[in-house]
């Protein structure tokens, strides 16, 4: 450890709290999210790349959302080891801060880009012929840079305090203070207001406008309406379930937690709500990849690409020799020749009619 024992003792936690939930529920959730979230977000990143390649500004937001999820997924092995060792951090304080930053970055960057996606969809559906300047690749890139810069600056200001301390069992605790410190109150109020409540209002406003327009639209296909409604409903459910309980309990702690007794009573419920935020890493790829009308086409491209690469060169050579007329070049030539013949016959017919 880089910190001296004196520094650790200054941050000693006097509360004796039962941490059994960290050895039972937390490892299961972290391992499950890691196993599912890593491949799902890698696939989501490729899907976002396809969107960016197609010059769709939505792909920029999807890409940033997935990167935030992946960064947090990569930190999960450290949290798994931490909870399995009975909340004893065996690494230095810098790595504790990095893992803590990735945890909170994932929450608030995900919230920010969920809002960006909702506003982008709102402008596309409600005002399809206006605000084009806000729905461009350049605008999406600028917004993404601003979001990352804001969150990194906020974390730098927040995590200037010591984040490791010793509990009553002399375990080095990472990122946990019971009861919460005085300097945490204002920060938690800011996180609740700016990081959850205001984005929640934006989501309600944008998606209410989207649903209102979709219901009144007679030209939109029924399948498209169902898809839009499913995207809207799923986003709201994920936002409320993954981030709602945690921020409500965060506000509750900031308002009422002044003793170890209260911290002990709310400990299990608070950490279950924190685990719910982790499921955001699994929910985001499912929501924005599998709710798109182009997803199945994209997956078909991935499947075909993988199939072609798995085939041996011998099989490909035999296929080309056996079916030379089915190659794209041959078909293109035949179509070109047919177009020329058709044009020539049309000219002959016109000349013949003029002579008559």
Automatic annotation (TrEMBL):
Which intervals hold domain G-protein coupled receptors family 1 profile? Answer: 40-288
Per the UniProt entry, what are the Gene Ontology biological process annotations, in alphabetical order?
Answer: adenylate cyclase-activating G protein-coupled receptor signaling pathway; cellular response to acidic pH; cellular response to pH; insulin secretion; monocyte differentiation; negative regulation of monocyte differentiation; osteoclast development; phospholipase C-activating G protein-coupled receptor signaling pathway
Q: Which residues cross the membrane?
A: 28-49, 61-80, 107-127, 139-159, 189-210, 231-249, 269-290
**What keywords tag this UniProt record?**
Cell membrane, Disulfide bond, G-protein coupled receptor, Glycoprotein, Membrane, Receptor, Transducer, Transmembrane, Transmembrane helix
Primary subcellular site in the record, as a coarse category: membrane
Q: What family name appears in the similarity comment?
A: Belongs to the G-protein coupled receptor 1 family.
UniProt protein name: G protein-coupled receptor 68
Q: Which organism is it from?
A: Anolis carolinensis
